[in-house]
């Protein structure tokens, strides 16, 4: 083979190898040099994120794991508005993000009662009250007066009767503040004071199967037995008896000083 042909083949091989490196770099890094592939334990830190619908308890879970109030919590959906990170240990990082609202087939009234949609953003709350009243006996639960309408209760009648009972009045005309009463009923439902429960999809067709399920019987036994009482302590009984007779309060040992509220704090320390 002639030397010129060998040089041409070497140049072609170099071009092919160089082009492959460029393609690999393009696959690893996108626009702006940002990595496009997922990297596990980047910079030696494990990142754990809380993702879910608004008002699902993501911030509360993060505070419980950290053992302190690190992020603000509220009953109002959409309270968390910024991406926040907190280190559980030097190698474990927790992330709290705002709630993600996905396209849902559930009606707006059910989203409000589930705490996903903010009640303050409702322009017309009476349909949600009607949705709730069609599934719960609101007049008897709220102790409302009998309806004046012979056809029965409507969502407006329930709100008006609740405004009359609670004393909700408008500022100018001093009429019953029906809008405020509707918001009050919806907030009671969102906070659990008015309990709305629904059966899972397909439960009616398999009702006998789920009632005879082993897990159902186990849960029923736990509900009947109630909470487990604390184990008896003879020294505690003698202390309380002596305290009653002598009028002295039992000694309470204070918690050890310097103890961290985070149960995972020791995971990041070197034991060697």
TrEMBL record:
Domain of life: Eukaryota
MF-aspect GO terms: GTP binding; GTPase activity
Presence of the UniProt keyword Nucleotidyltransferase in the record: no
Cross-referenced InterPro entries: GNL1-like, GTP-bd, P-loop_NTPase
Skewed-composition ranges (Acidic residues): 1-29
Residue span(s) of domain G: 48-102
Residues spanning the signal sequence: none
Keywords annotated in UniProt: GTP-binding, Nucleotide-binding
Membrane-spanning residues: none
The keyword Hydrolase belongs to this UniProt entry's keyword annotation: no
SUPFAM superfamilies from the UniProt entry: P-loop containing nucleoside triphosphate hydrolases (SSF52540)
Region (Disordered): 1-36, 215-272
Function text: Possible regulatory or functional link with the histocompatibility cluster.
Name of this protein: Guanine nucleotide-binding protein-like 1
Species per Swiss-Prot/TrEMBL record: Coturnix japonica (Japanese quail)
């Amino acid at each position: 083979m002639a030397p010129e042909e060998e040089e041409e083949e070497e140049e072609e091989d170099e071009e092919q190898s160089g082009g492959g490196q460029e393609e690999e770099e393009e696959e690893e890094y996108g626009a702006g040099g940002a990595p496009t592939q997922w990297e596990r334990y980047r910079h030696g830190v494990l990142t754990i994120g809380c993702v879910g619908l608004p008002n699902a308890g993501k911030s509360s879970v993060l505070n419980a794991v950290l053992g302190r109030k690190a992020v603000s919590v509220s009953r109002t959906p959409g309270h968390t508005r910024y991406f926040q990170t907190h280190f559980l240990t030097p190698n474990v990082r927790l992330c709290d993000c705002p709630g993600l609202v996905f396209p849902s087939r559930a009606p707006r009234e059910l989203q409000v009662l589930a705490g996903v949609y903010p009640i303050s953003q409702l322009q017309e709350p009476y349909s949600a009250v009607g949705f709730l009243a069609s599934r719960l006996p609101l007049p008897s639960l709220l102790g409302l007066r009998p309806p004046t309408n012979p056809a029965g209760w409507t969502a407006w009648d329930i709100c008006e009767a609740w405004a009359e009972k609670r004393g909700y009045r408008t500022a100018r005309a001093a009429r019953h503040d029906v809008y405020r009463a509707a918001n009050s009923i919806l907030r009671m439902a969102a906070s659990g004071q008015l309990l709305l429960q629904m059966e899972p999809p397909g439960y009616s067709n398999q009702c006998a199967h789920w009632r005879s399920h082993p897990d159902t019987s186990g849960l029923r036994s736990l509900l009947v037995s109630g909470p487990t009482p604390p184990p008896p302590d003879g020294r505690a009984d003698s202390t309380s008896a002596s305290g009653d007779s002598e009028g002295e309060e039992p000694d309470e040992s204070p918690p050890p000083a310097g103890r961290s509220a985070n149960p995972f704090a020791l995971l990041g320390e070197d034991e060697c």
